[in-house]
Design a protein that fits this description.
heterodimer, A: 116 residues, alpha/beta, Rossmann fold, five-stranded parallel beta sheet, 5 helices, 20% strand, globular, B: 224 residues, alpha+beta, Heat Shock Protein 90, seven-stranded mixed beta sheet, 7 strands
Chain lengths: 116, 224
């Protein structure tokens, strides 16, 4: 299962068009997403924005990392805020980070294919 | 964060989405999908154009180029809804409108009033609650005509509330409870309301916010 956490409906619509999979759940805030996570069957991948309504994307990842069952879930950040994934891999489990202004759909799909 | 930076961030949002949507076209398998993506690009680009146009108007306010005239608030609201319904649809939001006012004209500049209502609605679209509509209401209040836009999202921070309560948003600022927003729409709306010498304000609800503008009634009758 892939969890997408994005509060901009335009972007959610974009993800739906690109991912075209039945095993994707969409959330508009991190609290709802974490509440929905099955600890026995954690998500294969989490795609999330940083500037979210409620807790930020980093707060969501921090919360996930506090549970042993969720701490190894790989995460992809897609945000308008420029972020280097390398800095965040060990701390938050971020496997890729994309700028919304320069990301290519194929890049995202490749990561999705690799992890989920 | 400097206001120029947060404004740039907000202007980047529709541009980034348009780019991604254009790139996603190669994944569409039929013409219906291509048509839908095309419509979403158009709706998103129109939003970006309006934001830039409004900022241009803000810069020209000092030139006093915007004359006041009798305006039918219902016509202005209908025009805003016609402009925004597709964007609301793409964002899976509903925009309702309710007229409870007498059919009288208000004194305003139609362009600026359109922008005020548009920015209120865009704000409501971005921060409305799940599965709940945004609502435009037009009604008479204490000898004035009020246009109010209600959303059911997170309430706005006290600092912004105070500025709006005082009738003027000094500059666009990032609002942590409503991320992704620079407060640009509110800033524009407050500048235009101030120019028109109209009362601009908000009501904080437990489950959202209503933004409003109170307009003086024109002596001219409306026959529309």
């Amino acid at each position: 299962m892939i969890f997408v956490i994005e509060d901009d409906r335009g972007w959610e619509s974009y993800y739906r068009r690109i991912l075209r999979r039945n095993d994707v759940k969409y959330f508009h805030d991190g609290v709802a997403a974490i509440a929905e996570m099955d600890f026995e069957h954690p998500p294969a991948l989490v795609i999330l924005d940083v500037l979210l309504t409620g807790p930020t994307g980093f707060a969501v990842l921090n919360e996930m990392r506090s549970y042993p069952e969720l701490m190894n879930v790989p995460a992809v950040i897609v945000s308008s805020v420029a972020i280097e994934a390398g800095d965040l891999a060990s701390k938050y489990g971020v496997v890729a980070a994309y700028d919304k202004g320069s990301m290519k759909p194929a890049d995202l799909l490749e990561v999705v294919k690799r992890y989920a | 964060m400097e206001s120029e930076v947060v404004v740039a961030h907000e202007l980047k949002a529709p541009l980034s989405l348009m780019r991604q949507l254009a790139l996603s076209l190669e994944f569409e398998k039929d013409m219906e999908g291509v048509r839908e993506v095309g419509q979403q690009i158009v709706a998103t680009s129109e939003r970006a154009i309006r934001q830039v146009n409004d900022l241009t108007k803000v810069a020209r306010l000092d030139d006093a180029l915007f004359e006041m005239e009798p305006v039918n608030p219902r016509v202005v609201c209908d025009e805003v809804v016609a402009e925004l319904w597709r964007l609301f649809e793409f964002n899976r939001r509903e925009l309702r409108i309710e007229y409870r006012n007498k059919r009288r004209l208000a004194v305003a500049n139609p362009q600026l009033l359109h922008s005020v209502v548009y920015n209120f609605c865009l704000n409501a679209m971005n921060y409305g609650g799940e599965e709940l509509p945004s609502e435009i209401s037009v009604y008479d209040r204490a000898g004035q005509i009020r246009i109010e836009v209600r959303d059911f999202g997170p309430t706005i921070p006290t600092k912004i509330w105070r500025e709006v309560k005082d009738g003027f948003v000094k500059k666009p600022v990032a609002t942590p409870m409503r991320p992704g927003s620079s407060g640009l729409g509110l800033y524009i709306a407050s500048r235009f309301a101030n120019y028109m010498r109209s009362d601009f304000g908000l009501i904080r609800h437990k489950d959202g916010t209503s933004f409003y503008i109170d307009l003086p009634v024109s002596g001219q009758l409306s026959f529309l």
